[in-house]
Please model this.
Amino acid sequence: MATTATTHPLLDTHRETLEAATQALRERSYYSRYPESPSPRVYGEGSSERGQLAHQETLNKDFDGLAEQPTTGRSVGSEKSPYGPTLGVRYPELDVEAAMTAAQEAMPAWRDAGAEVRAAVLTEAIERINARSHEMAHAVMHTSGQPFVMSFQAGGPHAQDRALEAVVVALEEQRRVPGSVTWEKPAKGDPIRMQKDYRVVPRGVALVIGCNTFPTWNAYPGIFASLATGNPVVIKPHPRAVLPLALTTQIARETLAEAGFDPALVQLAAEDDGGTLAKDLALHDAVKIIDYTGGPGFGHWLETEAAGAGKLVYTEKAGLNTVVVDSTDDLKGMLGNLAFSFSLYSGQMCTAPQNVYVPPTVRTDEGDLSAGEFADKLGQAISRFTADDAKAVEILGATVNDDVRGRATDIPALADRLGGDVVLDSRAVAHPAYPDAVVRTPALVGVDATNDQAYTQECFGPVAFVVRTEDTADSLRRFSRTVAEHGGMTAAVYATDEEVLDDAREAAADAGVALSENLTGQIFVNQTAAFSDFHGTGANPAANAAYADAAFVANRFRVITSRRHV
Model:
């Protein structure tokens, strides 16, 4: 049997971190290794300035952090910030065949290092990524359009926590497999004894296909889950969001090399916009695992064609995130919470609410409201929340592409085409620092529930629907059916009646979607907490996996048994 490493300097360095994270995972309790505040009191004096300078020094030149990757000799890159400027970063084009060979050659030593050493080395990589969080924030901001603080938090510490979570889940699953046992079967006379050795082996090369809106947050679980289970990873970023994953690849490769492993375990496959590299890589014989976040079209292709070719495919696609309104004892808190949820990053989140089901009468602590009155109050809350342009841009960010901009630009035409009415029009917001940024406030379109063609398709971006239903029971039926059919990453309910809440829980369970109840404070339906909340369920068409449960990692490795008589 091949030897498994039991010592490595990084084991002691990160033992406490891995133990604390493992305990939090088992208890599903609050744990965050990486502080979400960009304050210099947390990250050190001058950290913000150093991060901004590092980002600026990356622009308009060849990215020099991937020099040892096998390359075709060409460079690629077509990133333009949603805030206006062209980034001008050029990346070495990966020689795919040479890269696959290098990845496979790097795998045996990484496999034989064992789960504990892999976890320690990967934790070191995450720590180094965290140290560059300010630089990463600028990279995320100017590729995704997220506002800066959100880019820092979601693209930095929150993504890093999810990476550590994936490492720990993978470690826990591998720890379940003993290295060796003596097996005894009772028999006449002496028992039958066998020595059985169990060896965790990786599947092969893993491909991670990144998205434009959350380049690190959505990619890190797959990257680190595959690495933690012994698989080398080829990272294929979205062509408009390469820089955050290029930095990630650079840091990971440097960490691996310094820890005594082949940096070919992590390689970046960048391409110009409009290329077909993701499809080509997905069908490559060496690729055994695929993680994908993005639109349903290519996601469905992966789930059929790539999976049909024997690949293990994990996808997160689109869905209809739903809010069911019945009643509330805190109308002000409810409206404020929803206004923030709709406004955050202009609704360009896989978890952002889209459909709000409203019965003819909504009972509140400020009196009963008709469906129309409730819709108007929700629109007013959003308008108040986004009234100050300078403050609003720090929540809204910039629209990420022309598709989103097109939907938000002419809401009356959209409402007319869908057979609805404009409750709240979208407003253009002037960004004080980036005049070329296209920033839009959320729009609300009112529709009758019978007009289900209007709201049973994802309308990504700052557009939401107020759906007028017969009653709350009708709302719950429609919620459960539409999510089961079309998918959903999140759902929320507002009700003061425990029976309604019980019915909502049943509807959510039937639909296979996570449910938030009566959120009126500083927790929002858009947010999930690593080590406690599962992101996605894998139980509806929006995603076939969850960040990060045992199923997300356990099939990335196999167990080979060797046995003999003793």
The longest strand covers residues 192-202.
